[in-house]
Specification:
By secondary structure, the chain is an all-alpha fold. The longest helix has 55 residues. The N and C termini lie far apart (55 Å). 42% of the residues are buried.
């Protein structure tokens, strides 16, 4: 008993004699452990937020594409319809700013230049997409637009001067190859639909990369992801008006009247409402896309965009009964597998560099 109590006393004395420096090391280790837990929790919340943005974006975009194709089937004036949809978005966001539901943004001179460039790319991308959708089935347009990651990867590297590992870029090969195979001998192939969809890929890649660059710097007050897209929409609408007038002139009025005469159940109010609703969904799905872009790399957004197109293709086949060949299905499956491979490879090398 005496020996045991002495051991206890010695242990107490030894513990008491531990240097303060060693104690501080222990405290730092404990703090680091807590910090690691906090970082893990923050990372989980961030991933959940990004997943929510992507899921909401997919849902809104599927609805928009179905509504948009229905409008174009009745009113085959893609440039005018595209301009009106941009106008609905511009009206929506300016109303939010005017009523102070959302804080209105103000831009620096550099910010005005940056946002104008993004507005040009957004307007071009929208109008080229509308031309493609008007010239062919929704499924075909979105098969071609699945090539967007390739363009985003190139533009992102050139603009930011930071390139990813070659292995990451290599994973884009099955994406590009799968889409190419899907389009080869496609029964609903249209050169107009193909070329305009490719043009929209370039425009939207530039839009995403330049938008991300604007988000990373100071370009003004109250420049959130939502407000940035709002400003881009206003500029894009202004630019789309001359495009519509030059491309379709005043034939829109004749097409409008023809659409009303072709179906007795179609009234001017019903057609106008369809345009407004499609325009609102166009704006909302892109605003959510900007929220996603604020949290991910532009190439990751483009890859997510490719995944989204599978849902659009399936929805269009179900709604419009457009035939999709076995070859198109195989090519799409290869492309989607490439998207998954890209995501896993990029994540792997990011962990190595961390």
């Amino acid at each position: 008993m005496i020996r045991h109590s002495r051991d206890v006393e010695e242990g107490t004395l030894l513990t008491a004699s531990v240097p303060a420096q060693d104690k501080s090391v222990g405290l730092r280790v404990a703090a680091a452990a807590r910090g690691g837990s906090d970082e893990s929790s923050t990372g989980l919340l961030h991933n959940m937020k990004v997943t929510f943005y992507f899921a909401l974006w997919y849902a809104l975009n599927v609805i928009y594409n179905i509504l948009n194709k229905k409008v174009l089937n009745v009113l085959p004036a893609p440039l005018s319809v595209g301009a009106l949809q941009l106008g609905v978005g511009a009206l929506y966001v300016t109303t939010l700013w005017t009523l102070r539901i959302r804080a209105s943004p103000s831009l620096t001179s550099e910010g005005k230049s940056a946002v104008t460039k993004v507005g040009i790319y957004h307007s071009l991308g929208q109008q080229l997409s509308m031309l493609s959708l008007g010239a062919g089935p929704v499924s075909f347009t979105h098969i071609v637009k699945a090539l967007e990651p390739f363009f985003s990867a190139m533009v992102s590297g050139l603009v930011f001067g930071k390139w990813m590992k070659p292995q990451v870029y290599a994973t884009l090969i099955p994406v590009v190859g799968g889409v190419g195979y899907a389009c080869l001998k496609e029964r609903s192939f249209s050169w107009l639909a193909f070329n305009t969809a490719m043009g929209s890929n370039v425009a939207f890649a530039l839009r995403a990369v330049m938008s991300k660059q604007a988000m990373m710097g100071y370009i003004g007050e109250n420049i959130t992801s939502e407000n940035l897209f709002g400003l881009v929409s206003v500029i894009a609408f202004c630019l789309s008006i001359p495009m519509a007038l030059l491309g379709e002139g005043f034939s829109f009025v004749g097409l409008w009247n023809k659409a009303l005469l072709a179906d007795a159940d179609t009234s001017p109010m019903l057609l106008a409402r369809s345009l407004v609703v499609s325009g609102l969904f166009h704006y909302l799905n892109n605003e959510v896309m900007y929220l996603a872009l604020g949290n991910v790399h532009p190439v990751t957004l483009a890859v997510g965009n490719t995944m989204k197109r599978v849902f659009i293709m399936v929805a269009s086949v179900l709604v419009f009964q457009n035939p999709v060949s076995v070859q198109a299905g195989i090519g799409s499956a290869v492309g989607i597998s490439g998207v998954l491979l890209y995501s896993l490879t990029k994540q792997y090398y990011e962990k190595l560099e961390a």
